[in-house]
Structure formats: C-alpha cells, structure tokens
Amino acid sequence: MNNKGTSLLWFRADLRTVDNTALRHACLSGRPVIALYVATPMQWHQHDVAPIQVDFIQRRLLVLQQQLRELNIPLLIFEVGDYRSIPELITKLVQQYQISHVFCNKQDEWNEQQRDHDVGLALANMQVEFSIVDDSCAIAPGRVKTKQGEPFKVFTPFRREWLNVYHSLLPEAQPAPQAVVVHPVTASLLDQDDRSTPFTYPKKDSVLWPVEEDAIRQRLEAFCSEKVQLYHQHRDFPAIDGTSCLSPYLAIGALSARQCISMLRSSFPLCLEPSDQGAFCWLNELIWREFYRHLTEAYGKLSRNQPFHAWTSKIRWRDADEDLKCWQQGQTGFPIVDAAMRQLLATGWMHNRLRMIVASFLTKDLLIDWRAGEQWFMSHLIDGDFASNNGGWQWAASTGTDAQPYFRVFNPTLQGQRFDPTGDFIRIWIKELKDVPNKYIHTPHLWDGANTLDYPRPIVDHKLARLLAIESFKQAKALA
Ligand code: FAD
Question: pTM to 2 decimals?
C-alpha cells in the first residue's frame, strides 16, 4: 500500500465511529485521515428524504464531527446541488489535500452504485486508490446464496442460510479505531472552527430522537435487557411500547446491525435458536432487514421504480388524487388507518403493524399504485430506508418477492379490532373519536352519535374494494 499522502473516508449511511469497517480500514492505512460527508438536497441519495431525517442526520453529524476530532480526523461537510457533481467535488479535494486513497462503505442501491462507479472512474484517472467495503449488514449482501449460487427470493430459506453463514463467521461489532497520525494538512483543518455548511434542505425538528453515542447505546441495552423477552407478544400492538425504535439509527448508520446482534447475543446467548422466542423473534426482524438489502443489491430494478414481479406492472392502478389525499391526511374514515397516518405526519414515525395496514389499505382498498405510498413514506419517515421501505411496500402490494398473496387482503376494521382492541392508540391521534364507546371505536359511522362527530364516513366499502382489487390482480396476471 502506498503510504504517501492522505486517506479520505467518505461517510454516507454509516454515521458512526464504532464498528465502521471503512473507517477502520482508513485508520489502518497509517496515513493521516480526512473525513467527508456530502449532502445532495436536490436528490438526496436520489430518493426522497424526510425533513425530519435531514435534521436528524445534521444533528448526528455534529456528534460525529466531535468523535472524529478525538481521533485526529477532521470532518468536512458539503452540500452539492446535484449528486452528479460529487465526482468533481472529490477530485478537487484529492488535489487540495494530496489524497492518495479514498475509503467508503458500500451502498446497495443501484443509483448509489452508479454514483460510486463514476467516482471510481474519476479517481482511477488520478491514480488514486478507491476501496469500497461491505458494512451495511451483519452478513454482506451477496454472501447468502442458494446452493446454485442464486440470490434467495423467499425469506424462510434465506433466514436458514443466513443463520448458517452467521454461525460460521460470528461477526462481532468492533470498537472505534485508535487515533491516527496528525499531518500539517489535517492539523490545520482540525484547528479551524466548524467548517460545515448548514444544509439548505427543508428540515423538521427531530429533537425527540437523541443522537449522542451513549443515548443510542443505552436504548439498545435497555431494549435487550428489558423488552426483548416479551417482544414476540408485544410487537404487534401499537399502543404498547414493545419494539426497539432503533430503526432511525440503523437507517442513517448511527448504529450497525452487528452492534444490535452482538448486544442481543451477550444478553441472550441462545438467541440464534427459535426456542428463545422473544430474542429470536427480534433477530428475525433484523434478518428481514438483511433480506431486503440482499434483494436490493441483487436486483437493480428495485431501485429503479420497478416491481419485483414483472406481471404486476400490468395492474391498472386507480388515478384517484382525492382518495390519495384522504389517505395521506388521515381522513379515510377507517380509524386505525387515519390514526397511523396522522401519527406519521406529526412525528415521522409509524409502528410496523400500522405500516402494513396502511400500505395494504392504499394498494388494495384504494387500488392506488404502491409507488405513491413508498414516496410518501420516504418523504415523511425519520427512519426512511430505501431497501426496507421498498421491501415493505412491495410486500403489502403483492408485487414483491415473498410478498403477501394478492388474494389475501387485510380488513382494516378487523386489523384495528385485533391490534388496538380498545382503541387506545386511535384515541391518541383522533381526538374527534375520544368519546366514542369501545364497541364502535373501529366503526364510528355505525354509532348512534355518529352525526355529532367531525370525522369522515368510510371512503370505500371494504368488501367491494377487496373484490375489485383481486379482480384487477387477476386481470393483470392473465395479460402477462
Ligand atoms: P423492531 O421491531 O425493534 O425491529 C428491529 C429492527 O429490525 C428495526 O429497527 C429494523 O431495522 C428491522 N426491521 C424490523 N421490521 C422490519 C421489516 N419488516 N423489514 C425490514 N426491516 C425490519 N423500516 C425502516 O427501517 N425504514 C423504512 O423506511 C421502512 N418502511 C417500511 C414500509 C412498510 C410499508 C413496511 C410494512 C415496513 C417498513 N419498514 C421500514 C420496516 C419496519 O416497519 C420498521 O423497520 C420498524 O417498524 C421499525 O421499528 P423498530 O425499530 O421498533 O423495529
């Protein structure tokens, strides 16, 4: 390895110093290290990003800047108008700071890979080394394959093989690296006050989500020691605080999947066995995250707005702007759907069971294209993550691999009755329904006092909508 010059560590969705593979490699190079983060507000990662996530990222970057400073690494933060100008920005930095090697963690999305390809070409022209390493999953995308060497398309066999690979590697989270050598170039950058450009992109306050290292670690520790044992019983009930709420940290890489699993294993050494119900159930969800990342890496079409199953592109989705608006604003007349959508608007967060219910409602009851929902989620969620979001939407819309079969349509009223039986969650978000008796909380239009409520009647008849959706899917399949 060439020991001259400086190493550049390019942060993307991996905003941490602990257990960061590319950072570790950069620090081992023996050269001084400069770190970089580039925000692209026009097309942030070329997918929508929620203003609350922008704020969250910006707050986390300030913590990261401080942590890196302790490692003698200055963090430069830029905002560029268009991601296509990133190669130009990096080549300028290469010249300015005598950079001889650029390191980064791999991103699995197709667009991000194209961007890295362009950066790689520009760096090769300047004889600068470019190392992209795996870090986004506990088991790198592409490592879990069928016996024929193909990507898995079904979750259960994927999980079986993932567990085999995991057992053979037992990847452990790594501590933050040692401080690196200081060079006049990095020393002058470290001496300067904060050089970061404040993002001009719209922001929404994310202060309810702490970004400091200790707070994140405590959240993980508390979940693994206090809640995970009952996770399998509590995880489907939105009125219960039964899940980890760690997805925002995993989405921006303030926390790694390896850190989560290492912590889980230290509390529950048998968590890799299904018999350890709560712990295995939580691990199972982390493996879903890995599954969707493996799929994103293997099938570029997923990042390019296409369904996994080509025949589903023949579905004639309804062009129904008014209905879409009712769904977005929580005005459908289905309380569990509306409460969830209002929570998303107000907080940037939604419980997994509710994501499944509202996604099914949009794509089946309203027969509106899943891409409208996918985009709405990405532009509002604090944990917006392309692979998990696309996977979740394609699952609910029955267009994805190993998705919900199209003829199995969630009944939003029954889902509400089952997972929010006394309407505790609904009453938090729909104040208009606070006095409705429990018996009618999921069907307020049937209550005697319905006329006094400032709340819409159901915008669709679920039974008819279900039949229409099944028919539309059948017709699309027949055309294929
Ligand atoms: P926990 O229940 O504590 O699970 C632990 C971790 O496992 C999560 O933090 C998450 O990283 C992962 N995980 C859990 N469930 C899933 C799942 N079904 N698929 C993939 N990973 C999972 N998750 C996102 O992180 N970002 C998204 O943009 C996103 N969009 C979704 C859209 C739809 C339509 C659906 C159905 C699901 C979506 N999910 C998304 C998955 C899931 O809803 C969230 O990860 C989960 O609600 C986060 O809460 P938690 O951290 O308390 O999860």
Answer: 0.97
